[in-house]
Amino acid sequence: MTSQPVNHRDLTNPPLDFNWIDRVIVRTATEEDLPGMEWEGEFTRFRKLYKTAYERSLSGLTVLWVADLPGQGLIGQVFIQLNCDRPELADGRQRAYLYGFRVRSDFRNCGLGTRLMQIVEQDLIQRGFSRLTLNVAKENQAAMRLYNRFGFLIVAFEPGYWSFEDHNGDWQSMHEPAWRMEKSLISK
User: What's the CATH fold of domain 20-136?
Assistant: First the structure.
């Protein structure tokens, strides 16, 4: 049997190459990654948010991680705020805020999300952070299971009102009721 490379643009048939995950490179994002984070238009509306997040990473306020599968492109992304105007989320010293965690649907349930979370947590521990906070949409049960497995606990309800300027310069208002979850990064 000949192995075929994974093609995220057409995965109507399961890939024959089950070792693709071993080739994934998890690294911090570069400016050249910004177009690839839009995932062929799925997240184009967030273009300005991605650019701002990248600029904040240059000043040490955020860390952007990507999972890059050579020959295929970006198949995962994680955004971490180290400091923000809501210290209950990220305070720049002890508490960091995971505010974006995506794995392309064709690559889920294969261990990539777990690998990304482990890398993020290790990096935060090395930076001296002791707590990681995130918000997860109340209806996103798959993400809740992943976060519970990693030891996150619900600590509050978030009404989930936020807005952003999209790629066309129009302001979009969002309402995504969520649970705020948190975990300690320090082993007991």
Answer: Aminopeptidase (3.40.630)
